[in-house]
């Protein structure tokens, strides 16, 4: 039986995918040698029209644009790790934001294509996800002063992004000070809805113990970017029981593509966002070890799931 959510239309919602199915951008040892050209060719072959930026991509915008154009792909987002909550990193963070905005301007040119990339950020001050330590017991708890720094910093770069015609989308992330439902509530309550939007990452939310459907319904009007990925609940349980690091969790298979894991509410999540008039990038993500999960196979599995769920 079809579970179509037909109100999300291909005229307003564009399907992208991240290169983390082909290699890992945080832990570069999770890699079987798949080159950039194969990665983006398989993205296009699987039926996607956009992608995020990976560490194997050419750094010259003209070279990158030519390679993506050849395959009918666009950039869905670049990533900026913000460091507003630790010392002497605010100006470096703002500088990186401006660099990424300039990169997007060069990539997209002056065309009127509505499929503009969003700027995706997450606060990595004191984050433990890059470290080889137990993930959940060591996640940072932001102090009141750090919350003030984070909110002020996000508002500043949100204004910079808006001046460039971009949406700043905040990504709650495992191992950081903003990953739980409580922290997301605080972020949403304290930030200006016109400057700071929410990236809904179903995998990170579920793994952190938050209900992605509840978050989607509660903040549907603020969700402007989607990372759709699934989790394997048994691996999440192992992280808690065995004190696994984030890298070890990825190696163990914490994430997979939607429809292949433990989340059962993707149709309802997409329906809630459709009801709120969501328009923008819906990006498939998995962060799997390509030695264990064939990237093209899983990319096609995800596209088939979306076709069944969305009706297109």
Structure description:
- The chain has 312 residues and is of the alpha/beta class.
- The chain has a domain of 218 residues: Divalent-metal-dependent TIM barrel enzymes (TIM Barrel, Alpha-Beta Barrel), CATH 3.20.20.150.
- The protein is 40% helix and 14% strand.
- The N terminus is likely disordered.
Low-confidence stretches: 1-6
State the major sheet.
Answer: 9 strands, parallel
Radius of gyration: 18 Å
Please count the beta strands (DSSP E, at least 2 residues each). 11
Strand order of the largest sheet: 3-2-1-11-8-7-6-5-4
Q: Give the CATH level 1 class of the domain at 72-289.
A: Alpha Beta
Order of helices and strands: EHEHEEHEHEHEHHEEHHEHEH
Which descriptors apply to this entry?
312 residues; alpha/beta; TIM Barrel; nine-stranded parallel β-sheet; two-stranded antiparallel ribbon; 11 strands
Secondary structure topology:
Blueprint lengths: L12 E5 L18 H10 L4 E3 L8 H10 L3 E4 L1 E4 L7 H19 L10 E5 L20 H20 L4 E3 L10 H10 L6 E5 H6 L4 H7 L4 E6 L1 E2 L1 H10 L3 H7 L2 E2 L9 H10 L4 E5 L10 H16 L2
Helix pairs in contact: 2-3, 3-4, 7-10, 8-9
Brief summary of the model shown:
The chain has a domain at 72-289: Divalent-metal-dependent TIM barrel enzymes (TIM Barrel, Alpha-Beta Barrel).
């Amino acid at each position: 039986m079809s579970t179509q959510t037909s109100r999300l239309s291909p005229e307003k919602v564009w399907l992208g995918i991240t290169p983390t199915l082909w290699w890992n951008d945080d832990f570069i040892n999770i890699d079987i040698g798949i080159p950039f050209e194969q990665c983006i060719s398989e993205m296009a072959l699987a039926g996607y029209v956009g992608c995020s930026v990976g560490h194997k991509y050419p750094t010259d915008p003209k070279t990158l644009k030519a390679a993506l154009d050849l395959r009918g792909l666009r950039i869905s987002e670049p990533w900026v790790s913000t460091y507003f909550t630790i010392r002497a990193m605010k100006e470096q963070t703002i500088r990186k934001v401006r660099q990424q905005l300039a990169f997007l301007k060069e990539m997209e040119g002056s065309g009127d294509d509505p499929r503009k990339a969003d700027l995706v950020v997450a606060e990595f001050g004191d984050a433990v996800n890059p470290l080889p330590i137990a993930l959940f017991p060591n996640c940072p708890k932001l102090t009141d002063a750090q919350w003030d720094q984070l909110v002020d910093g996000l508002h500043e770069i949100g204004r910079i992004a808006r001046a460039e015609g971009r949406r700043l989308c905040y990504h709650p992330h495992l191992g950081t000070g903003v990953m739980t439902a409580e922290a997301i509530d605080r972020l949403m309550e304290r930030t200006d809805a016109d400057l700071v939007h929410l990236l809904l990452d179903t995998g990170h939310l579920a793994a952190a113990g938050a209900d992605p459907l509840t978050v989607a319904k509660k903040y549907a009007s603020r969700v402007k970017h989607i990372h759709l990925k699934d989790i394997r609940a048994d691996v999440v349980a192992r992280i808690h029981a065995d004190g696994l690091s984030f890298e070890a969790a990825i190696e163990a298979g914490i994430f997979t593509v939607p429809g292949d894991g433990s989340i059962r509410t993707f149709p309802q999540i997409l329906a809630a966002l459709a009801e709120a008039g969501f328009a923008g990038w819906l990006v498939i993500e998995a962060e799997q070890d390509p030695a264990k999960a064939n990237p093209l196979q899983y990319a096609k599995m995800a596209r088939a799931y979306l076709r069944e769920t969305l009706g297109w």
